[in-house]
Amino acid sequence: IADLADLQSDLTGIASGVAGLSLGGHDDSSTHIDSSLCILSRLDEEVSKLPRRETEAYRRATMVCPDQVSNERKLIFLEHENGDPALAARRIVYYWNHRLYAFGP
């Protein structure tokens, strides 16, 4: 379990937290929520632009364990990449490819 936590921290930057991007929390303004939903939509769009072969593990995860690919988790990837949806898309796909390789289906 410790190895899994280390791998997840290395690949996603979870240890750094999700301070700047959130769907809930203390700031309930509709502007903040709209902004988060917009950037999440851009992340999904960037993932869809990647070659289908590269995104197989990610797409499988969205069906098999959707809680592991929730919006809150996507925001972690976005924060780690300073809000850049294209970089976050590559990182989330990279994470799921390596997670599938390391731990199997």
Q: What does this protein structure show overall?
A:
- This protein has 105 residues and is mainly alpha-helical.
- Helix content is 66%, strand content 0%.
- It contains 5 helices and no strands.
- The protein has helices at residues 2-12, 30-49, 56-64, 71-80, 85-103.
- Helix 2 crosses helix 4, helix 3 crosses helix 5 (85-103) and helix 4 crosses helix 5.
- The longest helix has 20 residues, at 30-49.
- The chain is globular.
- The two termini are 17 Å apart.
Q: What are the defining features of this structure?
A:
single chain, 105 residues, mainly alpha, 5 helices, globular
Q: Could you give the order of the helices and strands?
A: HHHHH
Count of beta strands: 0
> Rounded to an integer, what's the Rg over CA atoms?
14 Å
**Mean pLDDT score:** 82
Give the DSSP E fraction (strand runs of 2 or more residues). Answer: under 5%
Number of helices: 5
Cα shape: globular
Largest sheet: none
pLDDT below 50 for ≥5 consecutive residues: which ranges? 16-26
How far is the N terminus from the C terminus? 17 Å
> What percent of the residues sit in helical stretches (DSSP H or I)?
55-70%
Structural class: mainly alpha
Topology at a glance:
Layout: H1 2-12, H2 30-49, H3 56-64, H4 71-80, H5 85-103
In a few lines, what is going on in this structure?
The protein is mostly helical. Helix content is 66%, strand content 0%. Helix 3 (56-64) packs across helix 5 and helix 4 crosses helix 5 (85-103).
